[in-house]
Amino acid sequence: MYCFYHFLESKFNKWKQNAITAAGGNGCGQKINQLNGPYGIFIDEKKNIFIADCWEHRVVEWKRNAKEGQIIAGGNGRGNRINQLNEPTDIIFDQQSRSIIIADRENRRVIRWMNQNQQILIKNIGCWGLAIDKNGFLYVSDQKKNEVRRWKMGEYNNEGIVVAGGYGRGDKLNQLDFPFFIFVDKDQSVYVSDVHNDRVMKWRKDATEGRIVAGRSGPGRNLNQFNHPQGITVDDLGQIYMIDWGNNRVMRWCEGKEEGKIIVGGNDQGKQSNQFNGPRGLSFDDEGSLYVADGLNNRIQKFEINM
């Protein structure tokens, strides 16, 4: 998602290593105080948390400091009716229409929900990740075609434009292998978590190939490696914040560096306040707190910044 993070002015910011559970944490289930496989998240200006609750086939909103959430999309069982979802993986907020846009993965569609009204925007797409840039263009990662495409907002009756990948599955600089979460910066460069290549790729606007900006040595747990990278965001300084799913940690990479730094997690798999189990998405609020969708622990963890 395109955003400015003015709080990340220092390259030496640190976060408290023990998190507060901001949503879920009450076991796996369909109750409104529970989550079941949270994936993509975003935080609005009021610090409300919006969650793609993948395996409950719904999107839930947790108000700030709430003890339970409320269903704002789906929640009508798994299915392909217009009021149903099937394993949603990512969500973004469209400021112009004040609506949410959902990657409805198993239904192979991108769908807009606004006040319980639904509109299918894009059909027949292996959608996983979503982003919007400063001009309102919509970006979708397509896992089946190993590419990222861009649409002009409101003009979805075409195939869009390929902005990353599109040259088949592989590990060359013009290829991707299972693109998942994406981020678009102010210059319309696209960052892609290239999951099965264990790297993050950056495709500048109109480029014919990308370049590796994080993860350089295949799968592993060293500081220059990932094990299935997932959620991604980038600050104004070009620092890349990544979920390292298989290593249960969040890393920060400065573009051009050979290795990253662990900022939270990395304490083995677990459910303690300094541990993760299969983290997926991440987001920041406007005070610099870091939120992580701790997937298999079925909770959203909030790490406050050390001031």
UniProtKB/TrEMBL annotation:
NHL repeats lie at residues 275-306. GO terms for cellular component: extracellular region. InterPro entries: 6-blade_b-propeller_TolB-like, NHL_repeat. SUPFAM superfamilies: NHL repeat. Pfam families: NHL. Keywords: Glycoprotein, Repeat, Signal. PANTHER family: PEPTIDYL-GLYCINE ALPHA-AMIDATING MONOOXYGENASE (PTHR10680), SMP-30_GLUCONOLACTONASE_LRE-LIKE REGION DOMAIN-CONTAINING PROTEIN (PTHR10680:SF28). This is Uncharacterized protein. It comes from Adineta steineri.
